[in-house]
Amino acid sequence: MTLVADDLDNSRLQGLGMYVLLKSMSDAGQSQSQVTNELFGRLDSELFATFDADELVAYTSQRPRLTFLGDHFAAYQAPRIEIYLMTDGMDRKFWFLTGVEPDLKWERVIAEILGFIEAFNVALVVGSASLPMPVPHTRPVGVTAHGNRKDLIENISTWSPTVESPAGITSLLEIRMTEVGRDIVGYSLHTPHYLAESEYPAVAVATLEYVGAALKLALPTDKLREAARLLEQQLAEQLEANNDVRQMVDGFEERFDAHVKEHEPRSLLLDEDKQMPGAEELGASAEHFLSLIENTNDWLRNGREEPQSGDQDQ
What we know:
CATH topology of the domain at 14-66 and 73-227 and 296-303: Rossmann fold
Helix content: 25-40%
Distance between the termini: 21 Å
Largest sheet: 8 strands, mixed
CATH architecture of the domain at 14-66 and 73-227 and 296-303: 3-Layer(aba) Sandwich
CATH superfamily of the domain at 14-66 and 73-227 and 296-303: PAC-like subunit
Order of helices and strands: EEHEHEEEEHEEHEHHHH
C-alpha cells in the first residue's frame, strides 16, 4: 500500500469509520457501481492510499475495459484498489476502500489493511455485498447481517443460513479482524434473482441505508430512490400485463411473507416441501421476466444522469 495524500496529519484522522466495497462475484443488481458512482458523484473525496493492482489482479479473470475507436484502441481502464477519505452530507469524514477485489495475495492485502486500521485507529469497518435470491421485488430488500458487533446485527437479518460458500476478501477480512479484536460488520443485501443481471436501484438504496446507519453517516440516496420508483412503476405495469410472471412473483411473495411471519431459521430458497425450486422452473420464469424488463433497464440507464466520479474511473 502506498500513501499518496498531501495531508498526512495522523491526529485529525484518528477514530474514523471505514466502508469497504470491492467489486466481486457477489454484485447482484449492479449494486457496487451504483453505490460507488453515487458516493463519488455527491460527496467530497480525497485519494489517500493505493494498492498495486497490477500485482493483485489476474487479468484473465477480470478483464479490464478499453475502447476501440474505428482504427485504434484507447481509454484503457486499469484496475484500481484505493482508499479515499470521504466527507458525508453532515461534514463527517470516513474511509472508503473501493475498487476491484484482488485475485491474488489476499493475506498480504489484509495485513496491509489491518496495518492501516491500526495506524489510524479505525473505529468500525463496514462491508456490503448484494446476493441474488428468490425474493420478490414487491417487498422490502432483505438482508443477512454478520460480524462481531452484536448491537449492529442482532434481529436484523431476514435470512440467517448455515451454508458453505465461495470466499471473498471482505469475508476473510471479517475473520481476521475478529481474530485481532477489531470491530467489523457486513450487510449482504438480497436482490431478486430475476433482476440480478440488471441495474436494480432499490438494492443500492438499502446498501447505503445500512452502511450509513452503522457508521452514523449521512449518505446520499435521493437520486437512487427516484430511479427505484421509476423502475417499480415499470415493473408493476409489466406484471399487470403478464399473468405467468405475476404468478411467479406471487409465489415469491407468499414464501417471503410466510418466512417473515413465522420467524423461523429456514432458507428462503426452500419451498413448502423444503425442496429447491427446479432450475428449469426458475430459469424459464426469470428469462421470460428479464425479456420483459430489458427495454425498461435500457431506458433507465440512458435516461439517468451519470454522477461524476472525480479521480475514480468507473
